[in-house]
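COURSE: Structural Biology Practicum
ASSIGNMENT: Worksheet 4, Part C
STUDENT ID: 0417
INSTRUCTIONS: Below are two proteins. For each, the amino acid sequence is given first, followed by its structure token string. Answer the questions at the end about the second protein only.

PROTEIN I
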Amino acid sequence: MANTQIESKIRDWLADNLSFIENGLQLIRKEFPLPDNIGAKGFVDLLCKDIYNNFVIIEIKRSNTSARQTITEVFKYHSLIKHNFKARESEIRIVIISTHWNELIRAYSEIYHKTNIALKGYKIEIDTLTSIPISISLIEPLKLSSLTRKFAFWQGLYLFKTIEKRELFQERLRQRLSLTLIEDYVSINIDGPLENKKILTPYAIVAAFQKQPVLELLRAIETLTLSGDTDVMDRADFDDEISYQRHLEDAFIAVLAMYRHSDDAEAGYSEKLDGMLNNQGWTVKDISRCGIFKTDPRYDDNLLIKELRGHDGNNQNKFVGFAESTQFERIKEIQQECMNSLMHTPQWAEFIECFFKELEGRNQQFRLFIDIYNPDSIITSFYFTMINANPDYLPIYRIFVDYIDCFETEVYIGELYWNQRTPTAVLFNSTNNIEIANEVIRLMINPENEMDSIKMALLYTNKKIVISDNKEIFNGFVTTENDKIVSDNTKYNTIQDYIIYNKQSIMKMISNYKSASQTL
């Protein structure tokens, strides 16, 4: 008997035995037509109502092939019920009944977890001779992992004196990880500048792992710990889940014990790798990939290195993101993830949060690009700016919003400007060596950019530029007021003016910072 005939027989039987599905269901009509004035049409297998007078759309499928069409159809029927009867979202339920769920279960689970649609799925067994259902069971949706592709915070950084020793390490790392269920990881070979004789171990491997659920980390740690003593702290010892997760990631790298096979080893993380590649002259030689990092067809080396450097939200100093207005979830991710790089500057964090709220209310189509560089310490970044004569060390953000339909572009730029006052920070004025040393230690351990910028007489500003039809129609400072972006008429002076007018105190800061950091 053909599948369509079997489906018809199942539909007829279920129409007469609705309690087989759910008590209290009442049939409105079999094969209920749902026309639409834009050409869409369809026939609901069974349209019912429940004891609360909600519409219940029952869709019946017989094979894996037809199961693939089910999701499209139920979405269409759901929409047509709303359109034809002005039904509220809360008044519509969907029930999917199928003999096969292999092709259906993942899409069903996505809808179940990620939409507001009231959805149930049932698997039925039918008598092969009569095609009458003989049993029914509720389908449990698959659990969706809360951990999308994202590198763990901690990385392993292993250093070698020779290339040969590094090559042997790669195989040992694979053997060690084969003992665990952790398959998604990368290891990259990076070489230091050979002309720098201070670097005794110029060949390195960075091992980075996909973020794992807590239970998987605990299982891996236990597997790798031969003594049975995992030396892992309890969840109760931590204030939040993030801290506990990072503790377990650190413990996992520790019990891997790969430091035994290297000449030196350090704790690795995104900011450190970013600094090695960006400022210290290290270069990527090759990349070894495993698991999803190997099978994902979108993954080129540029994307991989970007994520390893934490520019997707793992880095507290740098963030890069881009999206189009149709990518609602991606824009939400950008809004949340960029805040990690703004932890040290609440002034910019507040402004950018306000920017995203305003962007959300706009109906225009746009492309968004955001680039943030925000070092831990404003004083330290200014020091390196001066000794290297390079403004790239200074904090800055740029946001571009390109409105596709109206040929208009908005540009937001965050930079440091001078408030025309005199610096009062310790390093700019003090002659007390102990006080100076303590201040440099504080900047290394616990910088406070909000207060430090005030003491430096510098301000975190926001500028907006609007270009329409290739003409600049606005260029000025902006700020937030009552959760809105408004013009800022404050008089600011450039960082160049700051350096010229405060030359003596800046030279003192450079001398104090340099002498203190050399003795620490």
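PROTEIN II
(use this one for the questions)
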Amino acid sequence: MSTVTAAALQNPFPGLRPFREDEEHLFFGRESKVDVMVDKLASTRFLAVVGTSGSGKSSLVNCGLRPALHRGLMARARASWRVAQFRPGLNPIGSLAGVLAAEGVLFSHYAGGLPLEEIIETLLTQSTKGLVETVRMANLPEGTNVLVVADQFEELFRFRKMAAEGSGDASGTSEAAIAFVNLLLEAHADPACPIYVVITMRSDFLGDCSQFDGLPEAINQGQYLVPRLTREERRASVAGPVAVGGAEISPVLLTRLVNDVGDNPDQLSILQHALNRTWTCWEDQGAEGPLELKHYDLIGSMGHALNKHADEAFAALKIEHADPDVAAQRTRRRQKICETIFKALTDLGTDPRGIRRPTKLSTLCELVGGLGEEEEVKAVLEVFREPSRSFIMPPAPEPLKLTSVIDISHESLMRVWERLRLWAEDEAQSARRYRRLAETAVLEAAGKAGLWYDPDLQLALDWQKEQSPTPTWADLYGGGYKVADAFLEKSRLARDTKLATVIFNRRWNMPWRLAIAVLLAGGALWVSELYRESVAEPIKRVLQIKKQNQTGESKDTADEKKPAANERKVLAAAQKVLTADNKLLAAPIAKLDPAAVAAELQKGEERKDRAKRTALDVFLLLCFFAPALGLFFVLDYAGKRILRRIVFPKILEEVAASADKTVREEKLAKLAVVDAADALRTTNASFWRRVGAYLLDLGLFAATAGIMITPIVNTPFLTDFIDHTSYGVSILYTPFLVGWLYEALMLSSARQATLGMKVMGIFVTDQQSVRLSFGGATAWHFAKLLSYLTLGIGFLMQTWTKRHQTLHDLVAKTVVLSRPDQKKVPWWARILCGFIVFLLTLPVVFVAYIIYSLRNFRM
């Protein structure tokens, strides 16, 4: 075995990319197939090279058919050939015009005023004979043939599928695809024009050719199905390039490679990549001796070499920097750019079989973030298109421009590189979700569909936040981004408004309506009592005095009348009443006792007066409470509207924030944690902080009660009202009512704490770390009565309970926690707590002093 110096060696294996025409000397194993292809092309002038992905279609055309034509292997034609090879890409007619306008293809040294590419594209779009007319316009020398090679012809079918899905831009693209196919069919069918057409296409797209009229017939006549390599041909495809490269390969490795390839032609591109990596590994170890099995095993063999190599390229995106945080941030940025690029270059969303999607560099920059990212995008592409990798086309050292079309070198990278496969599946899922969103948006705008609601809406919003789609990205899948985004925002706003309205109504109905009702009821009672004392009672006393005077004046006259006359009057009245009630009782009227009859008549009059007074009381009650009731509805309506204007935007923001996926996951994590302190990453409030909060709230309550009661006590009119009314003393309970409403509203608010708790850095929540409702805060407030009834023992329970819970905490199922952002208690709060303690102990000390003084006095 010979030893070859590394300087004299050149890696003879291209890797994933196809062989180029200038690499014919490295192309082995397909020599016998070229003659059949040339004969088929000569007879039909249309050759469809069909095979599975990785079977070597492009390499067979580049290193087999084209060199054979230049050597004059086609007897019917001369050896002068002009070759226009291209890929349909995003604009098939534009791609064909671009390659025809290239220097030396049809025209040389063009010096016209208009761009040649625009002229050719105009000719191609005018009629189906545009290609024929363009070749004739070139006025090529006699005997010159034109070979048009449409590589990766399956790219054309993606646009047809987009048209079937009804996307806006797809219809135009579909018409362009039909026009492009007609150009090729008309060109090869014209015997007067020496145009030969060759297409390369994956065999799994053969059925899609029926979408174009005339294409299946042309393919049936000129189809060449790439056959499998025999075992000897596979050996030649490995050993031949090694010998050309000036090295040797061990028989064991050669047999292993042939066996690993097997009969699957899809493995040929992976084999070329594995050989490229094995050669590089052999060079790195000194290039001594033959290529051996150990070199092949080191690169991961055919099963893992490509995935490992691609991961190494991805890891090479790491950026070195003095600051580790800056380095990590910039590295993540480049890796994200890499992910965006490869997602754009692979397409599983349009076709589940997976096809490449050539994309201009300018479009990739727009997808990443704008043309300002050109240098970053180029830096990422350079890593993947190094000669040792060649994962990205065009290969180095061809310079990259904004107009350059970027593509992955082979579909096998989509299937073998695990990271790219996951990216492609994620992109396909995003594409499906976007298409459904765009279609629904168009239907909703036409009045044929409604807005989205959960769960579809929330899934779409989560997808929008995670993927951050842009108009440029949406154009890859049919466009319509503005309509889809407006529809999604409209659906979100409708859902959030509906939910915010429910939350607002719930918050308004319980505390605010109750407060209005209590205040109005108290006001109505106070007004009614004030009216009774100041108006009704004086009038009643005046009427009583007047009645007494009238009774005194008529007494003397009544005494002068005879008793017989009185008796006759009473009996006549009884006769009248009894006759009306029962005629049978009218006969024995003379036998009735006048005194008994008078008593019965008096009772009847009293019943009538009592009924009149009851009706009057009901009427007066309605008169007093009707304005209050009407005022309640007025205040309820007006207050609700005013409060809605103030707090509804904030509630809407809270609803939108709570719908975020991150917030939802945090809530689920909190619910999964049993301890609220662990869920909120804080600790239970200490005993002294809770005591300080009690003292501050007690001081606030006492100050508020003093402010409210002092004016009442010092006002003679109000004092007299309280002393002479049955329920006027209820005004003194107003501070307790206000205290309940204050504490319930504060604990159920976003603060989750009273002012005293806020100062001491603690807050109240339930045992699942969820904010208390108004009802829960009310239950906690009144549960404190139990702690008071136990003479303070209920408060002291927090010193030995696990979560520092008092008796009312256990009853209401709440916990008091420390605020993570407030570690220390303000100094002024400590001084204020000490002052309140001093005021509380002062009466006790004073009473003790009095008792002590009395004892000394007795002694």
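ANSWER KEY EXCERPT:
Q1: Confidence is low (pLDDT under 50) at residues 1-8, 163-173, 577-590.
Q2: The two ends are 129 Å apart (CA to CA).
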